[in-house]
Amino acid sequence: MRHLVGQSRQQVSLLPESLEDFVPADAPVRVIDAFIDTLDVAALGFDKAVPRETGRKPYHPGDLLKLYVYGYLNRVATSRRLERESQRNVEVMWLLGRLQPDFKTIADFRKDNAAAIRGACRAFIEFCREAQLLSGTLVAIDGSKFKATASLGPVLTRKHVERDRARLEQEVQGYLEQLDQADCETPGEPIERERVQAALAKLERRAKRLDRFEQAMNAAGRDEHCESEPEARLMRGREGTVVGYNVQSAVESETRLIVHHEVTNEQGDTRQLWPVAAQAKATLGVDRLEVLADGGYANGEHLDTCERAGITATVPRRVIPGSRAGLYQKSDFAYDAERDVYRCPTGQELRHAGVDRVRKLHLYRRSGCDQCPRQSHCTPSDIRMVTRHYFEAAYARSDARLRADPRLMRRRMSIAERPFAILKQVMSFKRFSCRGLRGAGTEMAIAVLGYNLLQMIQRLGAPRLIALMN
Question: What is the model's pTM?
């Protein structure tokens, strides 16, 4: 049979091939190597960046950072798998100069250099800004739920605690009745009595565990607690309810780079607009910035704060369910700013009747609606209420921008959601390996740096990007 035959494994070459020959000039690993070599690892605060004069020589932090970025970019995130890659992957051999750190060294590097790794992630955005690769005029903000290391098993809510405590009380009462019955029927039988007492001791331990959960909830001011990862929260995402974190990102419109990200345990996005937009503006170093976000970020106070800081945020209002079909909506009422009143479609005035400080609403009220011929189109009651947010003017300006360009939300989707799709589907980064906000933030910084490098490689090509770094 005529087939191609490989070289003998025992064949000795007179002129052995170098590792350089195995890595193409446009390989992404070359960009990783070139960028991290430009970093001042000591200034970023990496541990062991300046080695001691005595003792065992440490690995250079740049080499270990290269290994992690390469790993996350190529679906290899655990320290043990990275150790194996250093022993068998030709690209990793080239990247590390045949160094083979053990898994403990690799894992400790990620654990001990959280802040420095985040700094390295920011350094790439600074490089892109200095190289004038960013337009810096428009960013889109979005959030996505990433699973934590913990599973749903160790999580209890207050309802679960109340339910389990009621069941425990029933079981304890049942065992106590068995003890009373055993004493009456066969007094002094040790075997039955010991079994019941052992069961009661087990129930007591379960009750103490419920007490610990309740105390932890009270201390944190929450209605849930995860025993194995206290900082993780129950999150509702596209995959259902998970134990995880809410990752926020601000994505630049032209390059699709994640210019700022943050790992939070906030279950919603309502309080994220201003902090994420402000950090994105500071990172880009611009005087004015346009921001797009979905309805989950609707927050009048944040819209107003953004405007005063030079950030024009366009966010649609959240649709409030439960509106009665066929009745006049708030949009049918005209607001008179000079007199601070609302006018209904029939011309009647609704006057200011108080405030709701919790929801930050002004209340406008009119009574006597049962005498109105249009009552059936307005309210079943003789009173009609309309609310106006403290920052209604900021909402109105955002609404006007949406009416002027209805395609803004579609553009937001194309900008902001693509990076999360690449992180989760292409890079297979769906779940954190490290526990807590600090560990999750470190992992996300490595993944985001890998994503940003890949994005610029696809945009400029590896050789040109390397040339800009040198």
Answer: 0.86
Is residue 297 situated within a structural domain?
Answer: yes
Q: Confirm whether 42 is domain-assigned.
A: yes
* Cα angle for residues 214, 215, 219 (degrees, 5° grid): 120
pLDDT one-digit tens code per residue, 164-201: 777 777 776 776 666 666 656 555 555 566 776 777 77
Claim to verify: residue 140 and residue 160 sit in the same structural domain: no
- Residue 276 maps to which CATH number? 3.30.420
Q: Which two tokens stand for residue 103?
A: 């898994």
Interatomic CA distance for residues 69 and 82, integer angstroms = 11
How far apart are alpha carbons 39 and 68 in whole angstroms? 15
Q: Which domain holds residue 183?
A: 155-226
Classify strands 383-389 and 361-367 as parallel, antiparallel or unpaired.
antiparallel
Q: Are residues 211 and 261 in the same domain?
A: no
For 89-143, give the DSSP string. Answer: -HHHHHHHTT----HHHHHHHHHH-HHHHHHHHHHHHHHHHHTT----SEEEEEE
Tell me how crowded residue 462 is: count the other CB atoms within 10 A of its CB: 21
Phi, psi at residue 289, to the nearest 5°?
-145, 140
256 and 309 fall within a common domain: yes
